[in-house]
Specification:
Blueprint: H1 2-25, H2 29-45, H3 49-65, H4 69-86, H5 89-105, H6 109-126, H7 129-145, H8 149-165, H9 169-185
Helix pairs in contact: 1-2, 1-3, 2-3, 3-4, 4-5, 5-6, 6-7, 7-8, 7-9, 8-9
Length: about 190
């Protein structure tokens, strides 16, 4: 019976993880952070490290939205080894991508590229090609701002092809806009 109660408590708190993001959407970020702290403590007491990691990711997302990149990075770094340890490759890849985006915004290009590579490897292992394409597009942009125009265009074209194949119109348009910027930078106006 105590195992059933513990399972019920775990499920009840897992449902509340979704409330963190919902509170943020309606502008109640402080309340979301308070709930996250409570859930983190409860999941620790219930010996559920994966749920603790999910809460860390939610807290990191809040800090990311607030442009508090050092705090967001710390949160994501708390979650990463847990996902790696339990073999949750998809979550591991998502957190690596989050870290790569933060590093990109902080002009830490080399470390961002390393994180993107780890994320890409994880997404390829899971067969989630739309995520791979989004990473390729992001890496392409990093290559572009680093002056590596050919590599940028190759990655962006590769991403665009996947977006078109999957009818991802918004992502296709963003990718095409980035490609046009690269072509303009190269004075290749007909291609732009």
């Amino acid at each position: 019976e105590s195992a059933a109660l513990a399972q019920d408590a775990l499920l009840e708190n897992q449902i509340r993880i979704g409330c963190i993001d919902s509170l943020c959407v309606i502008g109640r970020e402080e309340e979301a952070l308070e709930l996250a702290q409570i859930l983190k403590e409860r999941f620790t007491a219930l010996y559920s490290p994966v749920d603790v990691a999910k809460v860390w990711v939610n807290i990191g997302n809040i800090h990311y939205r607030r442009d508090e990149y050092p705090q967001a990075r710390l949160c994501f770094e708390q979650a990463l080894p847990i996902f790696e340890e339990v073999g949750d490759t998809l979550s591991f890849g998502r957190v690596q991508a989050n870290l790569a985006n933060i590093l990109s915004l902080q002009n830490q290009v080399e470390e961002a590229l390393q994180r993107f590579t780890l994320a890409r490897k994880a997404f390829m292992a899971q067969g989630v090609t739309p995520y791979v394409a989004m990473l390729d597009s992001n890496v392409g942009f990093l290559r572009y701002i680093s002056g590596e125009h050919n590599a940028a265009l190759h990655l962006m074209a590769q991403a665009r092809q996947e977006f078109v194949r999957r009818n991802m119109e918004v992502e296709t348009a963003k990718c095409e806009a980035d490609m046009a910027d690269v072509y303009r930078d190269l004075n290749l106006f007909p291609e732009a």
